[in-house]
Amino acid sequence: MERGPGALSGAVVRILITGASGFVGRHLVEHLTTVAPDADIWGLVWSEDPGEAPPSIHRLTGDLALPSSLAHNIETARPDIVFHLAGATSVASSWQQPDRSFQVNALGTVNLLEALRLLDSRPVVVVATSAEVYGAVPEEQQPIDECMPLKPISPYAASKAAQDLITAQYHRGFAMPTVRFRLFPHTGPRRQAHFAASSFAHQIARIERGLDPPRLKVGNLDAVRDFTDVRDVARAYWLAATSACAGEAYNICSGRGVTIRRVLETLLSFSEVEIEVEVDPARLRAADIPRLVGDHSRFTSATGWMPEIPLERTLQDLLDGWREAV
């Protein structure tokens, strides 16, 4: 099968990252400065996004929903590698605004791939989809591999499934060298506070500073998730662009399941403050997946990647980051 851009060896690689000011985007830029220090990195940031792209890259502003702005930015960056990280990321918000999820994740990906297709080069495109596309898989069929059918249960997951299929179609129909990442939950320093583990850490940090009463609000603690450190995810992106098979889908995960309750208990163990835990009905999802654990053996076989950072260190670093921020 066709692999990554071996022809780029020895050349100055031009890299475009959509969502460069986001959580994974900033970690990816940090990793690229180590593994590809001479690369020419361009970051596409949503024009309405207040977040700042890392100062070491060329900043571009645009909107995935506007093909004209994308075409201009693609022509400016003329990338050899594209990491498509931008998207609507909230499962909870997708129930209130399903159209937004599809506009950004599905239609936005079509607009990006179409702009890239019109270039005279053939950049490698790594697209971030989600393990949520698998839906509620029976426990006896887990850990989940990439052959599992896509059965999304939320508007967000359905939009990511559409994105996944669109990306595959551009490879099959136009021979575009695309790679799909089905990302299981990932966290670490600078994770946004509306994700469970980061929400817990944020609340603990505020309670420790006396900014909030000692009551920590939670949702469903019985769900089992497969967490990977964001820094391991950043390593995986570069390996996908340079060593993976074009046209493939890959699970990016740790292969280990842990309850959200265990994540909370671990974070609480890092604090000397007595904190009461309180279930907040507003944090419960309309439909939740009870267990989501993946198998990363396909990606490991293709690239040699393995998750390296233990969950305890990830959570400690996450909490320490919030302690500094508040």
**What is the level-2 CATH architecture name of the largest domain?**
3-Layer(aba) Sandwich
| Largest beta-sheet characterization | 7 strands, parallel
Give the ordered list of helices and strands. Answer: EHEEHEHHEHEEHEEEHEEHEEHH
Mean pLDDT reading: 93
- Strand arrangement within the widest β-sheet reads 3-2-1-4-5-6-11
Cα radius of gyration in angstroms: 19 Å
Number of separate strands: 14
Overall description:
With 326 residues, the protein is of the alpha/beta class. It has two domains: 11-187 and 228-255 and 293-308, Rossmann fold (3-Layer(aba) Sandwich); 196-224 and 257-292 and 315-325, UDP-galactose 4-epimerase, domain 1. It is 40% helix and 17% strand. The chain is built from ten helices and 14 strands. The longest helix has 20 residues, at 98-117. The mean pLDDT is 93.
Structure summary:
By secondary structure, the chain is of the alpha/beta class. It folds into two domains: 11-187 and 228-255 and 293-308, Rossmann fold (3-Layer(aba) Sandwich); 196-224 and 257-292 and 315-325, Alpha-Beta Complex (UDP-galactose 4-epimerase, domain 1). The protein is built from ten helices and 14 strands.
